[in-house]
Design a protein that fits this description.
Blueprint lengths: L1 H8 L12 H8 L3 H13 L3 E4 L3 E4 L15 H4 L2 H10 L19 H12 L3 H5 L8 H13 L9 E4 L2 H12 L5 E6 L3 H9 L3 E8 L2 E2 L1 H11 L3 E4 L13 H14 L2 E5 L13 H5 L4 E6 L11 E4 L22
Parallel strand pairs: 4-5, 4-7, 7-8, 8-9
Antiparallel strand pairs: 1-2, 3-10, 5-6, 9-10
Helix pairs in contact: 2-3, 5-10, 9-10, 11-12
Length: about 325
């Protein structure tokens, strides 16, 4: 009975589906025919299935509410973050994608985008056709510098670089700081796309449980000792997908442990505009010494315009923007 109920709840059995015959079910489960007959009769009595004399037993309608806990995922898809990322982008526009953290189109800043595009269309040809400066539009970097200062992160425009998105920012950081086989810490759970990016860079991913106040510090410190990671990628503000916020105490212990281990922290802050009360930021406590902060406007203005940024330690050479502030520890052979 439990097996039939589970398959109905997971929609493996839809209304009208003919159940295996009594003898076939008995053979498959290794029980007697009379046991299956009694189970089918009880399911019929509770209305889950119906009996059609001379034909067999069928699942009754209407469609049962979808029970996600009853769905057994295909193992190859369960462990393939690249497949998850592709599915999220290829799904129909009207599909619900709560795991992505994306807002409905009519919640976005459509009127402002249209005004800005009209104004840009009237601009001189240089703004429409020429390459931007290597770090990105100076005016936008100045605006971002002021925004970060309001959050306690003292950042000069020269420490900011515009990217296509927050995802590209993480990709660039990984290109500069990781070699295949390096270990990277992430939260458990975390934004699924982190796994896809790190798999593409052939990194070894170690997950640290995330609590209502931030990562489990004891488990975090143990991972530093045992796995010698190069990076830790996290959200400090509105954590994706838990919605938790980092506490000052956890932030302090986290940074102290990271400094002792030579760890670089990547703080993904793309949901900052949704906060009513700003949470502590690792980049503010650290002064962008060992923390690289990234952000984007994909969640708050438009995912189609593609604009993100990084705020990283200052360096004499802009091409070394992502170099860690201190010498990295020797990697084990």
């Amino acid at each position: 009975m439990a097996q039939v109920r589970s398959r109905i709840a997971s929609r493996a059995y839809s209304p009208g589906t003919r159940l295996p015959s009594v003898r076939a079910q008995a053979a498959a489960m290794g029980v007697s025919v009379s046991t299956v007959v009694e189970a089918y009769e009880r399911l019929a009595a509770e209305g889950s299935i119906t009996s059609r004399p001379g034909s067999g037993f069928y699942v009754a309608g209407p469609v049962a509410p979808l029970a996600l806990t009853e769905i057994g995922p295909r193992l190859d898809r369960e462990i393939d973050p690249l497949w998850v990322s592709r599915q999220s982008l290829e799904a129909a526009s009207d599909a619900l994608r709560p795991g992505c953290g994306w807002l409905p189109a009519d919640w976005m800043y459509e009127a402002g985008i249209r005004r800005a595009l009209r104004a840009l269309a009237k601009a001189d040809s240089v703004a429409l056709t020429e390459y931007a400066t290597p770090l990105g539009h100076p005016g936008l970097r100045q605006v971002l510098s002021r925004r970060l200062a309001a959050a306690g992160i003292d950042t000069a425009p020269e420490q900011l670089m515009l990217t296509e998105s927050g995802t590209q920012a993480i990709d660039l950081i990984c290109r500069f700081l990781l070699e295949p086989g390096d270990t990277v810490l992430v939260d458990d759970p975390c934004y699924f796309n982190f796994h896809a990016l790190l798999k593409a860079h052939r990194a070894r991913v170690v997950s640290v449980p995330y609590t209502p106040n931030g990562p489990d510090v004891a488990r975090f410190e143990a991972a530093l000792r045992e796995r010698a990671p190069r990076l830790y990628i996290t959200n400090s503000g509105i954590h994706n997908p838990t919605g938790a916020t980092l506490s000052p105490l956890v932030a302090h212990r986290l940074l102290k442990a990271a400094d002792g281990a030579g760890l670089v922290i990547v703080e993904d802050d793309i949901f900052a505009d949704f906060e009513h009360t700003p949470a502590p930021r690792l980049a503010a406590f650290d002064g962008l010494s060992r923390v690289i902060q990234i952000g984007s406007f994909s969640q708050t203005i438009s995912a189609s315009l593609r604009c993100g940024f990084t705020a990283a330690p200052a360096d004499r050479n802009d091409s070394c923007l992502f170099h860690p502030p201190h010498a990295a520890p020797e990697r084990p052979a």
